Amino acid sequence: MPDPTVADILKKVQRIQIVANRAVNDLLAGQYHSVFRGRGMEFDEVREYQPGDDVRAIDWNVTARTGSPYIKRFSEERELTVLLLVDVSASGAFGSGERSKLELVVEVAALLMFSALKNNDKVGLLLFCDTVLAYYPPRKGKGNCLRLIRELLAARPVARDTRLDVALDFLNGVQKRRTVVFLVSDFIGPEAGRALSSANRRHDVIAVTVTDPREHALPDVGFLSLADAETGEVVEVDTSHPAVRALFERRAADRARTLTQTLRKSGVDELPIDTREDYLKSLRRFFHMRERRFR
Length: 295
Known about the structure:
The chain is α/β, with parallel strands linked by helices and 295 residues long. Helices cover 44% and strands 23% of the residues.
């Protein structure tokens, strides 16, 4: 596949911007605001104590100066820092329909970025496979979002393993304050439960799990040559044999079950998206789940 030209990338950025903006305005802006917590509480004002106020909020310094009781008021700090950790290993190039997993990732990432933009949040991007390939620190503004989308569109799949722990350890090193982290990957690689738990203690980590239907079930089409995009290993499979298809489905189900268990044990929420499904439905379900939890 030839590398995209600058003109190709800019054209795709314009199309993605239109699609993402429409979705944000019509569907997600209010939900986005309500399902992610701010970084904490920030000082708002000092006012006179009123009957019923919490005595633990009394500002003793002001009270001593004025001779009357005053309390400190705090409000939730709504501004968020949002960071997308995107796996660009070669398995993302797979897609059995009109788009690959990585193409789907770009659209979902753009939607999340424009949702953050509407909320006046900072947005950053980290690209990784078995190492961190690029890091763009969180910043505000539409120009920043468009630049990050361009970088995503220009990223080429890398034929190396996926190492979630490397990306998450890097995250903990560069982001000291609490951050909303979207970890976007097909999660095909070594188990990373320890790193997920560690990152989620400091941040709000959401696992965006990207799949394709052909990763769960094989069609009955006779002999197929299946190539591992990251190792180059090729396996000949007779898909006409029911036992072969059943074994493939069973192993895929086992991987999915193990991943779900790992995420639950780590306290990480899962946002599943599929190349053949409407990702807006998945986002709605995810946001409704977070809203119910916070209520």
